[in-house]
Write a structure and sequence with these properties.
The chain is α+β, with helices and mostly antiparallel strands. It has two domains: 93 residues; 81 residues, YbbR-like domain (RNA Polymerase Alpha Subunit, Chain A, domain 2), CATH 2.170.120. Helix content is 28%, strand content 35%. The protein is elongated.
Length: 228
């Protein structure tokens, strides 16, 4: 009784027997024919119309000198599109595709980009491809004005009870979103030095720590710290 593996082996041998012992040029010709057939099939398939979902890149244009986003702006937007296979392949791979230009009005209190604005920018960038489904009705945004404050430096209250401090420079300018900069404490606290029990005076450069969206005019200051 012949098993399934035996029958499969016979079938394989029957298929490859005509190719055994042929010249190298024969196998090259067979390979070329298979590649040509595959290429023809692929080109024919790419000429048809398909629907797929892609992440389309976005390019934001706004007054970045005076305004700052409080949350990272999205770099791409998922959409469902319909079009010829060639165009969809180019869009997926980013070949010859320019990002959709979005131009929000970055006023404080702006919470979203209207659907008409970002849909228009997306459709203009997707030439020859029809958007059939959008990711949502709005793109959430939060902008704020840039602001600067010059603040004196000091030790935190708990440390100030035990040490006197002199900073060089004595004041630092902070720049960032107005809502964050205006909430900074005055004077601005700087982490004290760790002093030994036998040392009355210590001095060293210490960092000026800030929130991620706030930039200080200097990254370190010189601190002369004396035990009271």
């Amino acid at each position: 009784m012949t098993g399934p593996l035996t029958r499969a082996g016979r079938l394989v041998r029957w298929f490859v027997r005509p190719f055994a012992g042929q010249e190298t040029s024969f196998y090259r010709a067979i390979t070329a024919c298979l590649l040509a057939a595959g290429l023809f099939w692929q080109m024919n398939a790419l000429n048809k119309t398909y629907t797929t979902r892609i992440n389309f890149p976005l390019a934001w244009h706004y007054d970045s000198v005076h305004y700052v986003p409080l949350r990272p702006l999205p770099t791409a937007l998922p959409v469902t599109v319909t079009g010829q296979g060639w165009r969809l392949l180019r869009a997926n791979l980013g070949w010859g595709t320019r990002p959709a230009d979005l131009r929000p009005v970055p006023l404080p209190g702006t919470r979203y980009l209207p659907a008409d604005a970002w849909r228009r920018g997306l459709q203009n960038a997707l030439e020859g491809v029809q958007v059939t489904e959008w990711a949502g009705d709005t793109l959430r945004l939060t902008f704020d004005r840039y602001a600067s404050r010059r603040l004196p430096l000091a030790l935190p209250p708990d440390s100030a009870r035990h040490y006197t401090a002199r900073f060089t420079p004595a004041q630092v300018t902070f720049r960032g979103p107005a809502s964050l900069v205006n909430a900074l404490p005055n004077p601005y606290p700087v982490t004290p030095l760790t002093t030994s029990a036998h040392s009355k005076t210590e001095e060293a450069d210490v960092p000026v720590s800030t929130a991620s969206r706030i930039h200080a005019s200097v990254s370190t200051v010189h601190l002369l710290q004396t035990r009271r």
